[in-house]
Amino acid sequence: MQSFDPLTLRVLEELSAHLGRPLELVAPSGEEPNMVVSQIGDERIAVRARGPRPLRADERGLLNEVVRLLHRDLQHETEKRTLAQRLRVLERENLELTSRNSALAEISSRDSLTGLFNRRYVLDKIEIELNRALRHGTAMSLLLLDIDHFKQVNDSFGHMAGDDVLRNVGTVLKESCRVYDVPGRYGGEEFCLMLPQTGLQNTMTVAERIRSRVEGNTLHVGEGKVRITTSIGVAGIESSPEQGVNTALSLIDRADRALYSAKNLGRNRIEVWNAALTTHIEH
C-alpha cells in the first residue's frame, strides 16, 4: 500500500462520514460498481465504498475528486523520492570529485623522483608559516641542504645512480623530521626542510641528524660504492620578529647564504646565517 499524507487520508475519512459509507484504499485488482480507480503512468489508485449498494453518480464524482487528490499526493511523494535519489547521486559524485581533486592536489604538490614536496608547495608553506610566526611571535626555522660533488656522481656512475642518491637523501629527510615539518626538493640536488615553531638550537640538532645519516649511507652502484655528504645552511626567526625577514624569499636567502658558507668552509658541515654573510660564495 502506498504511503499518503495524513491530511489526505483525513479528507478520505471525512468523506466516509459524509456518505455514511466506510471508504478504503485497496489494491486496484479490477473494476467494481462501488470502486473508483485512477491510473497515471504506472501508478494505480483505487478507493472502494463498503456495502453492496453501487455508488451513485454524485458519490462517484466526489470519490473521483478524492482519488485525484490522492494521486497528487502520490506524485508529490514520487517527486520527493526522485529528488532524494538525485541528491544522493550528487553527494556521491561530489564525494568522488573531492577525492579525485584531493589526489590530484597531492600529486601536483610532490616531486615525482623523491616523493618530497616540490618547490612551489614548499614556498607557499614557508610563506604561510612565516606570516603565522611573525603574527604570533613564535619561532620557525628553515634549512637548505645541498649534496656535495653531486655532478661527480652523475659523471662517474651515470644519471640513474644520481637518481638513487637523490631518492636516498629524500628518504633520510623524511625520516628525520616530524609529521608537521615540510621536507621538500628545492631543485636539482638541493633540498629544504621547514620546521614550524622550532628555534635554531633544535633545528641544528635536526640538521646534524640529517648530515650524519647521509654521511653514514653507502650506495652500491654496480660493483662500485657511492658515499655522499651534504652541506646544510640554517636560518630562522626566534620568538621576537627578526629584522629583515618578512617574506619567504628573505628567509630562504639567509639559509642559502649559510649553505654556501658551509660549502666554502669545506663541505659536509652545517652553518647558521649571520649578518656577516652578505654575499653568495660560488661553489
Q: Biggest sheet, in brief? A: 5 strands, mixed
Sheet with the most strands: spatial strand order: 5-6-4-9-10
Structural class: alpha+beta
Order of helices and strands: HEEEHHEHHEEHEEEHE
The helix count comes to: 7
Share of helix among residues?
40-55%
**What CATH architecture of the largest domain do you see?**
2-Layer Sandwich
CATH superfamily of the largest domain: Reverse transcriptase/Diguanylate cyclase domain
CATH topology of the largest domain: Alpha-Beta Plaits
List the uncertain runs.
none
Average pLDDT metric: 82
Which percent band covers the strand fraction? 15-25%
Shape: elongated
Regarding quaternary structure, what we see is: single chain
